[in-house]
Amino acid sequence: MAQVTEVGKIRRRVLAEMARMTYEGTLQEKIDDILETVVTEQGPRYRCCVHKERAVLKERIKISLSQSLDLSLKEAAANALSGEIVGLPIVNVLPEACDRCPIDKFIVTDACRNCVAHHCINSCPKGAIMVVQDRAYIDKTKCVECGMCKRSCHYGAILEISRPCERACDVKAIHAGKDRKATIDETKCVSCGACRIACPFGAIVDRSMVVQVIERMKTDKVVAMLAPAFIGQFGVKLKTGQVIEAIKQLGFAEVYEASFGADIVAVEEANEFIETKDDRSFMTNSCCPAFADMVGKHLSALADRVSTTVSPMVATGKVIKRKDPEAVVVFIGPCIAKKGEGLRNKEFIDYVLTFEEVAAMMVGKRINAAEVTASEYTSMASRDGNSFAKAGGVMQAVLDTVQMTAPEVVVKAHHAEGLGNCKIALLQMKAGKIDANFFEGMACEGGCVGGPATLTDVRVTSKFVENYAATSVAKVAPENEPAMDERKKVVDFHQHHA
Predict the structure, then answer these.
(1) CA–CA gap between residue 347 and residue 317 (Å, rounded)
(2) CB 208: neighbour CB atoms within 10 A?
(3) 3-class DSSP state for residue 299?
(4) What's the rounded Cα separation, in Å, for the pair 151 and 138?
(5) Rounded Cα distance, 248 and 243, in Å
(6) CA-based nearest residue to 317, from 344, 277, 284
(7) 452-473 pLDDT, tens per residue?
(8) pTM of the full predicted structure?
(9) Nearest of 273, 243, 490 to residue 400 by alpha carbon
(10) pLDDT tens, 203-252?
């Protein structure tokens, strides 16, 4: 199983309590109780006192309700129950929680020998280093954190301490502000969630719509759409039919697999590749929103290489809405960035929840999926559609589809995982250093199965996905006849930017 930290346990307990109260209809009345049930007088303590712990928790609850930090908890609960979602960023820093990282980026250690050369002093452009008591000393009022002193010290006596959130961010979107608290630059952030995982104090959170979804299920037909990575997430011994039934017991009227849309995407993307291969040196996938955003925000010169095909989430949403325009569509997956993609496609996706949030809903409604009677269930997707969840899966689906529909076309494919690795690979492809004309980029290591809101170890889930994909009746996307029929009925599966 994936390691669950104390930060993760607190996050899940808050979500479960919110879900329980929403199902029971007592959220607005009892929301303040969460402060005392999650943070008790007896501890444990991670900060100075119970009051500080509860101040942090109060902010966490408000973001989990997708409400402003300026509101009281009861006001925030009332707004969430009415369906309101304020325009917060997808990923947020809790001001009360972000105060435990080292303030000083460069520290002189005991390894300093007070040498005669004093390379550190000579290299400092601001005159911020002096010798005090036979040891180099950095005047923080003058230091501009350029790192010249560290690089010049022959003893390696100057230590650089970078914040975990900064170190985790491959797009350099997070940094310490003037008040030394972390600040996220929205013009750079792609909502990949790496900083949320990295922060040891749980000071970085993604907003949630658990309460809003539960309320909609009380009045509307709400349809769940499971990401291909759902296999094994809610219990490694669970049958797929148990997961489907447990999801329905939460209040969802129907359950779709997003891999159904992945088969449509594989065909559309393969066709797009064939039609445009002579116009651009290479094409990339578009289904990973953090990767696509990274290209748009940080490699804009390559933005035209990103496929215009919509993601499996949006493709499946289009199918569901075509069949029932009144249906409320909720995507459930391992990805935080999907919450942003959902907002950009409101016409087809009403809400996005993570596996972690849905697991908390099960706890809140006291559903033990292991005790749920399994229904007969067969995957809605082909082997290749289900394999979208794994790194290399999209690439293989496009390869197989092109091979089946246009065998004379040569596809030279390459893939990378992690935004930093993707960026390097794209620049190398642009420079002609990688001989490939199709590129699959995934923000998370291992692909979607390694997403920030998964519940199971990426290696375990990868194997489960592989086994599940092998049970599919159709092996390649064009063999999935129901998906191909829907492809004909929905006219357009492409994004059209102004």
Answers:
(1) 9
(2) 27
(3) coil
(4) 14
(5) 9
(6) 344
(7) 999 999 999 999 999 999 999 9
(8) 0.92
(9) 273
(10) 999 999 999 999 999 999 999 999 999 999 999 899 999 999 999 999 99
- For the chain, how big is the Rg over CA atoms in Å? 25
Beta-bridge mates of residue 353: 332
The label of the residue with tokens 């066709």 reads 271
Give helix 355-364 / helix 6-24 axis angle, nearest 10°: 50
Left if phi > 0, otherwise alpha if psi is -120 to 50, otherwise beta: which for 251?
left
d(CA 229, CA 226): 8
Chain centroid to CA 61: how far? 19
Distance of alpha carbon 264 from alpha carbon 310, whole angstroms: 10
Tell me which residues of the chain have a pLDDT lower than 50: 1
Extract the tokens encoding 311: 């993601």
Record the tokens describing residue 94, joined without a space.
Answer: 């809790």
Looking at residue 429, its pLDDT comes to 97
Task: Calculate the CA 269 to chain-centre distance.
Answer: 23
Is residue 136 classed as helix, strand or coil in its secondary structure?
A: strand
Q: What are phi and psi of 473, to 5 degrees?
A: -70, -50
Tally of CB atoms within 10 A around 285: 26
Tokens standing for 491?
A: 């006219």
In angstroms, the CA 394 to CA 302 distance is 20
Contacts of 255 (CB under 8 A, 6+ apart): 223, 224, 225, 226, 244, 247, 248
User: Three-state SS across 453-491?
Assistant: CCCCCHHHHHHHHHHHHHCCCCCCHHHCHHHHHHHHHCC
Strand-pair partners of 439 = 284, 414
Pick from 338, 334, 341, 92: which is nearest to 195 by CA?
92
In whole angstroms, give the CA distance from residue 293 to residue 290: 5
